TrEMBL record:
Entry-linked Pfam families: DapB_C, DapB_N
Protein's UniProt name: 4-hydroxy-tetrahydrodipicolinate reductase
Record organism: Hufsiella arboris
UniProt-recorded Gene Ontology molecular function terms: 4-hydroxy-tetrahydrodipicolinate reductase; NAD binding; NADP binding; oxidoreductase activity, acting on CH or CH2 groups, NAD or NADP as acceptor
Subunit structure: Homotetramer.
Organism lineage string: Bacteria, Pseudomonadati, Bacteroidota, Sphingobacteriia, Sphingobacteriales
Domain Dihydrodipicolinate reductase C-terminal: 106-241
Alphabetized InterPro entries for the sequence: DapB_C, DapB_N, DHDPR_bac, NAD(P)-bd_dom_sf
Ranges in coiled-coil conformation: none
This protein's encoding gene: dapB
SUPFAM superfamilies attached to this UniProt entry: Glyceraldehyde-3-phosphate dehydrogenase-like, C-terminal domain, NAD(P)-binding Rossmann-fold domains
Active site annotation, chain numbering: 135 (proton donor/acceptor), 139 (proton donor)
Amino acid sequence: MNIALIGYGKMGRIIEQFAVDRGHHIVLKIDADNRDELNTDNLRKADVAIDFSTPDSAINNIYTCFDAGTPIIVGTTGWYGQLQRVKDDCLNGKKSLLYASNFSVGVNVFFFVNKVLAKIMDRYPQYDVQVEEIHHTKKLDSPSGTAMTIAEGIVENVERKNEWVNEVVGQTEIITKPDQLLIESHRIEEVPGTHTVIYSSEVDDIEFKHTAHNRAGFALGAVLAAEWLNGKTGFYSVKDMFDFNISDI
Ligand SMILES: NC(=O)C1=CN([C@@H]2O[C@H](COP(=O)(O)OP(=O)(O)OC[C@H]3O[C@@H](n4cnc5c(N)ncnc54)[C@H](OP(=O)(O)O)[C@@H]3O)[C@@H](O)[C@H]2O)C=CC1
Ligand SMILES: O=C(O)C1=N[C@H](C(=O)O)C[C@H](O)C1
């Protein structure tokens, strides 16, 4: 496949390596310095675009791909307030988009088991629950997209939690109400991404944790998603690609 990389930073560069290793060709690389080269003519040279850019630029990048008719994989986080509008425009215009807050196999297994665990813990009100995420200090958005997906999996399944709230440790201080799920964000040099769900009672804690050792899992997952999306029209999340099912267990 011919691939356009929108965002050529930490992720874009690793994605390039995996894509080339798998026999693909990079036909366009966009970063802040050459962003005027992101236009429909250039995008039409690509079979698929992969966006790992910035929360502020993602929406414009998505709509430029829609205009070009180029399917787009969106790894960028921090734009999900616009998700419904993007979904509607994608489906109405018969465009092609797949997004994920996290493309790694490990985290997608984690997302699935998190929901199962939440369903079980719904029965045990003596446990409170919170989510912690740790990322490098260059990260622009808080909470991480991954932590939001985890929190949504808990709020959907634990009746005593109705919404999530975010505290960035050292910047904001939150006093949560009982029906609020706290996501605590920590920023520590060079950490690729660590997510923990903690259920705490008077007598014990249950901790469920995913630690990324590097960015390779995210990058390979994004290339596999591009291969999966090739030839499809529609609006997808990474769940459509992994498709775990409790009846498989
Ligand atoms: N879904 C997932 O699995 C994962 C998602 N992410 C998300 O991906 C995004 C990128 O992460 P990361 O690679 O670490 O970040 P980086 O800051 O390393 O890279 C961002 C890139 O975007 C470029 N950029 C800036 N403005 C624009 C623009 N207007 N158009 C196109 N590109 C632009 C930057 O250019 P320049 O360097 O010139 O400023 C840079 O090349 C983040 O939102 C992050 O949360 C990260 C890892 C995994
Ligand atoms: O910015 C990052 O680095 C990461 N962002 C994604 C997120 O916001 O969840 C995925 C991963 O945790 C790394």
